[in-house]
């Protein structure tokens, strides 16, 4: 998709900091990190959201997820990690190429409260 910023990140026309890549997926640092090490995992195939995702794309995407979680763990030593995916503008999606957020968590120090966290 020519007007998609994440397709441009995959083809290299928009620079990014690579975390992981294989033939099906690309992972890179979020440019506005919610916490240190905030990473996005995307399929190389342009898929708008989870509703539109073919099963094979889902399989390849989630096959890479533990590798990215462990790369983040090794690099940043967080105490925990949230994965999160917004589908549709109403749910907070702002880039319409599917992406899975990896948000490392650092005890009290990360200052982040996700909207299902009450304490
Ligand atoms: P969403 O709100 O769609 O779930 O998340 C989009 C994410 O993409 C945001 O966290 C935002 O910071 C990130 N983002 C938007 N544009 C760029 C970009 O050009 N480069 C990178 N690395 N991240 C981006
Ligand atoms: Zn795209």
Q: Could you give the topology of this structure?
A:
Layout: H1 5-11, E1 18-21, E2 25-29, E3 39-43, H2 55-76, E4 80-84, E5 100-105
Antiparallel strand pairs: 1-2, 2-3, 3-5, 4-5
Bound molecules: guanosine-5'-monophosphate and zinc ion.
GO molecular function, one term: methyltransferase activity
InterPro entries: HINT, Histidine_triad_CS, Histidine_triad_HIT, HIT-like, HIT-like_sf
Protein name: HIT family protein
What does it look like?
This protein has two helices and five strands, in the order αβββαββ. The chain has 119 residues and is of the alpha+beta class. It has one domain (5-110): HIT-like (HIT family, subunit A). Strand 1 and strand 2 (25-29) form a beta hairpin. The longest helix has 22 residues, at 55-76. It is globular. The model has no long low-confidence stretch (mean pLDDT 94). The structure holds guanosine-5'-monophosphate (5GP) and zinc ion. The site of guanosine-5'-monophosphate (5GP) has 14 residues, from strand 2. Residues 5-113 form the HIT domain. Keywords: Methyltransferase, Transferase. A motif (Histidine triad motif) lies at residues 97-101.
Structural class: alpha+beta
Based on the coordinates given, report the CATH architecture.
2-Layer Sandwich
Instruction: Tell me the number of helical segments per DSSP (H or I, 4 or more residues long).
Output: 2
H/E series, N to C?
HEEEHEE
**Number of discrete domains:** 1
Helix residue percentage: 10-25%
Measured distance between first and last alpha carbons = 41 Å
Unreliable sequence segments: none
Largest sheet: 5 strands, antiparallel
Mean pLDDT: 94
Q: What is the class in the CATH system? A: Alpha Beta
Overall geometry comes to globular
Q: How are the strands of the largest sheet arranged?
A: 1-2-3-5-4
> What's the number of extended β-strand segments?
5
What Rg do the Cα atoms give?
14 Å
């Amino acid at each position: 998709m020519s007007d998609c910023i994440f397709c441009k990140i995959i083809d290299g026309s928009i620079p990014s900091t690579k975390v992981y890549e294989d033939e099906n997926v690309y992972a890179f640092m979020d440019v506005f990190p919610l916490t240190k090490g905030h990473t996005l995992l995307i399929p190389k195939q342009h898929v708008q959201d989870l509703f539109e995702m073919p099963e094979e794309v889902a399989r390849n995407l989630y096959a890479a997820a533990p590798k990215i979680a462990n790369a983040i763990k090794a690099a940043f030593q967080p105490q925990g990690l949230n994965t999160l995916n917004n589908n549709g503008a109403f749910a907070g999606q702002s880039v319409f190429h599917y992406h899975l957020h990896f948000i490392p968590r650092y005890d009290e120090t990360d200052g982040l409260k996700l909207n299902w966290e009450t304490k």
